[in-house]
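Slide 14.
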Amino acid sequence: MLAPVENRSVSPVFVGRTDELDTLNDALDRAAAGEPQALLIGGEAGVGKTRLVEEFATAADRRGAVVALGGCVEIGADGLPFAPFSTALRALRGALPDDLAAAAAGQEGELARLLPEVGETGGGRHDEESMARLFELTARLLERVAADRTVVVALEDLHWADASTRHLLSYLLRTLRTGRLVVLATYRSDDIHRRHPLRPLLAELDRLRTVRRLELARLTREEVGRQIAGILAAEPDPAQVDAIFERSDGNAFFVEELAVAAHEGCCTGLTDTLRDLLLVRVEALPDSAQKVARIVAEGGSTVEYRLLAAVARLTEDDLIEALRAAVGANLLLAAPGGDGYRFRHSLVREAVGDDLLPGERSRLNRRYAEALEADPTLVPADERVTRLASYWYHAHDPAKALPAVLDASVTARSRHAYSEQLRLLERAMELWDAAPEDVRHRLRPLDYAEAYPACGCDPDTAPLRYLDLMAEAAVAGRLCGERERALKITKRALRLLADEDDPLRTAWFWVQRSRLTRSLGRGSGREELTTAQDLVRGLPPSEVHAEVLTHVANWTMLHAPGPDAYAAAEHAVEYARMVGVREIELDARQILGVLMVDAGHVETGLTELYDVKGRALAEDIPSVALNAYVNLPSELEAVGRSGEALPILEEGVAYARRHGLSETEAWIWGNLAESLLSLGRWDEADRACATVARIGQGVGIRGGHASLRAELALHRGDHTEAGHQLALAQGFFGSHGRAPQHDLPLTRLAIALAAAEGRLPDARAHLTRALDLGFPPGAQRYAWPLLLTATAAEGDARGLPAAERGRAELLARVREAAKKIVAVVPVWRAHELWLRAELLRAEGRGGPQDWAAAVAAFETMERPYDLARTRYRLAEALLTEGGDDERDRAAELLRLAHAVAAHLGARPLGDAVGRLGRRARLPLTPGPRRAPAATDPVEALGLTGRERDVLRLVSAGRTNRQIAEALFISPKTASVHVSNILAKLGVSGRGEAAAVAHRLELFPADALQAPPAR
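Slide 15: predicted structure.
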């Protein structure tokens, strides 16, 4: 390599940018305190972005921070996938090898897609979550590395970034939660035209409060003068400063070029364009140095010395002399790694590159490609395939370019860089017809295509088809979010297949079209699936057949559950077993299990779901296991087994986090929030919702989160917030073609909000629409609460003249609809009893016995809010009936309901209980009592006989299970009795209850020697 050469055009004095440096240093301070920072630095080419980053990096290094720089690498018009992140991670590995190894432990196979040095790249499937998994693991890796020290990651030239790099940066800046980390990125603002791919990302990041954006302005005249003084090491002539300032317009790079030109007495300061100024500098070099400059301009952002030597074809002495001249003229610089060369500024490279003739450009690319083919070690291994594809493509040689581009597409897929895979596949399709037939005939699907299953052909001998490329491109487009492009490719493939007799391949493309149509909100996807199903009907079993049936079963389960969905799932399982496609088989079995539960075959369905989860974990099929962590607890919640769902959900959160799948983790957190809500753990549910909001990005996740927020707000009496969240949920799920699992809860929330705000006609309209649509089979978990909410609104409005018209007909429709809803598990039976009592109340009939049945049903379950609501209604019915005994019982029920409402923060329920208590002149909290001497102190406390027995065993230190065994009741019933006792005694725990019993001498000492539990 060359010895250091004096750099005369760069000022040793850093000029201006005081405010920007203050902002960056403030970010460093915040990061050092544990608050991750993100900054975007924009400015036109040459304005000084790189110099600002260098100055900040130097200052950060002096303060003990670890600085990792990465730049977006441009090869021709192509960016290397994840190049800036790979470079930055490589720098971190060099600075902190042990720390990075520890942070990557257990995930080396995935992280090797970005940094091959950490291990062998893992296999794994390619799906919507593959890229998200890689992104999540990268974010967590940086957080762990920055846990104990400040780390600065600087990514330069974002305007050249490939799509995968943009997606990863977006994910990183949205999800950083902890760590002493500063992430900053620079980009050319003058390059960001209306259709530039970076523009949407900048708009998205602008909306994040955690991202700060700096725009570098041009230098002022005073700053230009100081810059020139630094370059010339002397005070410049004011007239010269004026001339250069006017000519450069304050652009720091052009100030440097003009200052040097003026100092050397060159007339370039008078040229018509600044581009000419740059080229004149090149043309002043010896011919060999000009040749080397042109070669470097076409080779990419940085060209390795050995590769440059192979392409230049000069003797080593001549090459070094040419490089010395180019470096001495400050056109080229040694690359940071010391093994190559790059232009001092990209503007110079662009000027030289633009001056190349078309034939000259393609000839240089051919020489690069031939050199790299002859010696693949000339470039880093992780760049080799991509650079070779780019060189051959720009050499305009289809015979060489097609296989090279396909190789690069496979590499991009293996790195989960699906955007780059799509771009390369589109390039391959462009080259297809131009490539010789013998070249195409030698290509095999096994080497390049995996999206379309090998059905009916031998992948070892069958040639690659254009339709195989289209299948790969359609899947890559779906995985990287380019669904419009994927749909366009899919439609084109189906037009080509219209003239072929290939029903399996045609059916496969119809399935892709269904998925894309649904994700784009262009329809439900049902028509496309029907077409696919018709195409495979009657054909021998195949992977495509099993996949079609699984998608049909899944769609039908969500939108129209019933016998058709069940039959499709059974056939999918059968076909998948026949052809040995384990993943599809387990997916179909999972659908079958959900359908069994929803159809009332609860234990059989849950057993199936438990078995699928266990097998997926044992056989290491994460996609199925993650679905099981969502679906199994959801079905447990549906049948009222919320407590059983909790540990599975907590296990699922850990599993999803371990696999770096934040979207699936968000689904699991949403289900966890729902179960916590049912169990009366509202504060925990609120925190779970906050986690969903932080990590969930999908429309379905955000819609579910908004629904849960609306539910909580309604329960707590915040109608404004409930309305806001309900509107958000409706927006996320759309207004047409919603699946029942979304539509029915949203309708119930709309009814509840309308009733709470006194808009009974609106509540009735929502109910009427639901009744008109009907409740599909398996919808009982949503149907019972919806009918209850609507009927309760009618009961509350009874007696209002405006509400009488149409009530009888509407209640009759509710009663008729309820007859068709399954009630085979305790929670559904409890809702059925509750609805019956509400219907009678709305009709002005019924009495305490109806509400007592509902209360008794909920007393055996862990649903404190529902129990409190039914107790409140039972107390109301008892007070209406009158009598001293009824009054005492009502007082006890109201106290219990009031205690629950106060604990949960359920203000509407608490207010209703309070109003009823005041009307009846009943105290809602136990006050100090002085029982007559002859009165039993246990009775004076308001304890029932059963509660006396339970308190005796609590005082003896028995657990709920031991109490249940001793008294021949269930543990849940024992738990309910304990809760009632605590409320009546006004204490917060079992120990305090035992202390009260001891202080009041409620039980003789020998009575505390309870019989052994049986």
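Speaker note: The chain has 51 helices and ten strands.
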